[in-house]
Amino acid sequence: MHQYASYKQFKQGLELLEKYIDGHPDEEGSLQGLNLLLKRINREKIKRWSQQNRLTDEKEVVEEENRGLLETVAGLEGQRELDQKRINELQKQIEQLKNIENIIKNREL
Q1: DSSP secondary structure string, 33-87?
Q2: Please, is 102 exposed, middle or buried when counting C-beta atoms within 10 Å of its C-beta (0-12, 13-18, 19+)?
Q3: 26-32 long-range CB contacts below 8 Å, 24 or more apart?
Q4: Distance CA 88, CA 80 (A)
Q5: 3-state secondary structure at position 109
Q6: Based on the number of CB atoms within 10 Å of its own CB, is 74 exposed (0-12), middle (13-18) or buried (19 or more)?
Q7: What does the alpha-carbon distance between residue 44 and residue 38 come to, in Å, rounded to a whole number?
Q8: Cβ neighbour number for residue 40 with a 10 Å cutoff
């Protein structure tokens, strides 16, 4: 029943205490409080582990979603760069067309 005992050691100690209580009915009253306290500690440990497992599962889900979002952001940033290059090309082509239009207008005059 040491505070740093593993769960397996804790369970063995709990079972040993229950066997002792069963084998010594005359001391059952004095040890029953300890037994109830240890059972409550056991329930709290199990509850804490289940909460910890649930939080770990939720964390993994959130991390997976985060990875997906980061990949989406990276893809969108790459697409934005390509779009910006295309816009620049189109603006240059518009300028060239304006220059050609001006040249044609000047020749007509």
Answers
A1: HHHHHHHHHHHHHHHHHHHHHHHHHHHHHHHHHHHHHHHHHHHHHHHHHHHHHHH
A2: exposed
A3: none
A4: 12
A5: coil
A6: exposed
A7: 10
A8: 10
Half-sphere exposure of 78 (CA within 13 A, CB side): 6
The two structure tokens encoding residue 39: 């059972």
Helix axes 7-23, 28-108, angle to 10 degrees: 160
Which tokens is 96 given?
């060239």
Extract the tokens encoding 55.
């939080």
Instruction: Render pLDDT for 41-99 as a digit per residue (tens, 0 to 9).
Output: 889 988 998 999 999 999 999 999 999 999 999 999 999 999 999 999 999 999 999 99
Give the dihedral of Cα atoms 38, 44, 47, 49; nearest 10 deg: -80
